[in-house]
Specification:
three-stranded antiparallel β-sheet; Transferase(Phosphotransferase), domain 1; disordered N terminus; binds adenosine-5'-triphosphate; binds magnesium ion; alpha+beta; 9 helices
Length: 265
């Protein structure tokens, strides 16, 4: 697969001007996971914007060089930031990616794997390199997406995903916008709470038909297998209870709340 891909990449390089080609355009998610897991670490630097000590790490396998966002945070507190049983953990980045794939939205969340960094377990997340701006900047400059329908659809996907995972930290720096005006969802380290209610059902306006169908297929056995020990049983049960509420809410809204989002890439 990898050899095949590499020769395909060489062929593309011959005909596409290099400036327009990104590794992200040609590697499969599995190849990105493989790269993140095995590639050699070349250098790292701090990412200044955030609060959880995220590093921007350069990786290479000899052929391909690409960056990863590395988070090693694994914090659990009885009470913090108005939350009982607060947690902020790299494990949730990996779980969010795996869940995104199960829901058919793996084109909106970058691949993330578990890997040791300087003796500590961490998430290594694929760096999105064609970022145009984040949502903070878009709002500050009051820039409208050129295709409002597509933009709204991707925002609605995000709202459903965040209610499902009970994301406590969807701040606007965790919403990246690429050159094609597509939304990328990053930094899910404060998610997967045990609550069996939705954080805010009022944000749920519309849902992608395929995502709704995939939501319905989620069960405890599948999620336990996908997440391994990264997400606890009460956290999985909370997620499934919220899934039930989301499905019920959209079934009550009916056909008018459904849309069909085109797959990216
Ligand atoms: N995979 C990625 N691809 C591109 N840019 C990224 C990626 N991960 C992080 N960044 C950039 O680095 C910033 C900080 O990273 P991240 O959100 O992971 O850190 P944080 O410390 O948890 O931030 P927060 O303040 O949201 O808790 C992001 O807002 C984004 O601009
Ligand atoms: Mg962040």
């Amino acid at each position: 697969m990898r050899t095949l891909h590499r020769s395909a990449l060489s062929a593309v390089l011959l005909v596409v001007p290099f400036a327009f080609l990104h590794a992200a355009d040609v590697l499969t998610p599995e190849q990105k996971e493989d790269f993140l897991t095995k590639a050699t670490i070349k250098q790292s630097k701090d990412v200044n914007k955030g609060t959880t000590g995220t590093l921007r790490v350069t990786l290479t396998d000899g052929t391909l060089t690409h960056e990863a966002s590395v988070q090693a945070i694994d914090d659990y507190k009885q009470s913090f930031l108005n939350e009982i049983q607060f947690k902020d953990t790299y494990k949730d980045n990996i779980a969010a990616w795996k869940l995104a794939r199960l829901l058919g939205i793996g084109d909106m969340v970058p691949p993330s794997v578990k890997r040791t960094y300087q003796g500590k377990p961490a998430s290594f997340t694929w760096w999105i390199d064609n970022v145009k701006m984040d949502e903070t900047e878009r709002r500050a400059k009051n820039i409208e997406a050129p295709d409002k329908d597509a933009w709204n659809q991707e925002n609605n996907v995000m709202q459903v995903f965040d209610q499902l995972i009970y994301n406590m930290d969807r701040n606007q720096t965790n919403m990246l916008i690429d050159q094609g005006w597509h939304l990328w969802l990053i930094d899910h380290s404060r998610s997967f709470r045990t609550h069996k209610t939705l954080k805010d059902s009022s944000v749920l306006k519309a849902i992608d038909r395929n995502m709704l169908a995939k939501l319905k297929t989620l069960d405890e056995a599948t999620l336990t297998k996908e997440f391994g020990r990264d997400v606890s049983k009460p956290e999985i049960q909370g997620l499934l209870a919220r899934r039930d509420l989301i499905v019920k809410l959209f079934e009550a809204k009916g056909e008018s709340a459904l849309f069909d989002r085109p797959q990216r890439n």
